[in-house]
Fold:
Amino acid sequence: MRTPVVRYVLFVLAVLAIWAICASAQAPPDFSKVEIKTTKVASNLYTLEGQGGMIGVLTGPDGTLMVDSQFAPLTDKIVAAVHQISPGPIRFMINTHVHPDHTGGNENLGKMGVVIFAREELRNRLAEPIPATSANPGRPPMPHAALPLVTYRGRTTFHMDGEEVDLIPIPRAHTDGDTLVRFKNADVIMTGDYYRSVGYPNIDRANGGSLNGMLEGMGVTIGLTGPNTKVIPGHGPTVDRMALIAHRDMILAIRDRVDKLVQQGKSAEETLAAHPTSDYDSKVPQAQQTSERFVGQLYAELKPAK
Structure:
């Protein structure tokens, strides 16, 4: 008879195998067909949407500041879109976290002279190789030009273009290198991927993410928002404070359901079969694609270590 531990190991191996098959079956995106959509958020603050995470653009007499860079093949289109907003130089860029849909264009922008800012943890992860696995082809260390030139441990503030731009570390949430970016005067917050308004949360434990860090990060974000604050997630539509509170409460409710199943001695497969996200699936965009991942992450976070 298989023990719960053996069943859990087999389940994880099966999931990894499925991921590998899906990854090999998917064709790479055709970046030549991607169009960059520009949206004005405030007087001199914009977002750019293309393929990947949301980009922020602050412009003015002190030059341009960007938030994240999306994928490398899109850099020319992104730079062209930025220069449609302002012909001035792109001086600075902030990385909200390590994933390539937010950092893939770093090298191109770094070679253009853009100074990249990020958490030390993020820089360290880019600088280290990722070993290949059955589910991940891995990668070598990122080139020097792709690495953040300036790193920070605590809150850091830009004073430029009539704005106070606060970089606020969010420890061990989506990853271990997350940053909240607040445009104080515009009353706008960019979260990166520790908050997304589509899909269930993604606790990237392989890159240092954690459930408690994600909940604490949501609490910090809610505390910084007022009734008129615009919250721009890493993916999905802009939301307000009430949407953040609902998202945090959803995480807590699903966590409690998974924890109850863990305390009952349920296996990972049994926990998934219990559908602990069922009350929210009809309310969460892209629920079908992300529910099992989230439940599996919660199970791994809550299961007592042996």
Observations:
- The chain is about 35% helix and 20% strand.
- Residues 111 and 137 are 26 Å apart (CA to CA).
- The two ends are 19 Å apart (CA to CA).
- The chain has one domain: 4-302.
